Amino acid sequence: MMDWLIANGATLIIGMLVLVVIAFAGRNVYKTRKSGGCAGCASSAGCPSAAVRANGCGCDSAPRP
After folding, report:
1. Mind listing the pLDDT tens digit for each residue in 39-51?
2. CA separation, residue 50 to residues 5, 11, 25, 62 (Å)
3. How far is CA 2 from CA 7, 9, 14, in A?
4. What is the pLDDT of residues 5-56, one digit of tens each?
5. Are 59 and 38 in contact (CB under 8 A)?
6. Is the Cβ–Cβ distance between 41 and 50 less than 8 Å?
7. Is 22 helix (H, G, I), strand (E, B) or coil?
8. HSE toward the beta carbon, residue 5, CA cutoff 13 A
9. Cβ–Cβ under 8 Å, residues 56 and 43
10. Burial (CB count within 10 angstroms: exposed 0-12, middle 13-18, buried 19+), residue 38
């Protein structure tokens, strides 16, 4: 078991770092959406298919009160 951990240590560390980055990105999206902000494009001009909606950012839902 210890040999396997030593042989794959770098891969495990990089994998954990990637998971941490993904978790922080998901947390940021969740908090932004929860506060009524847009977690999508910074502006509707950046997304050719996004139409400006009630919240002005091209998201599918209006901001929550």
Report:
1. 666 555 555 454 5
2. 47, 39, 22, 14
3. 9, 10, 18
4. 999 999 999 999 999 999 999 999 888 888 876 766 655 555 545 454 545 5
5. yes
6. yes
7. helix
8. 2
9. no
10. buried
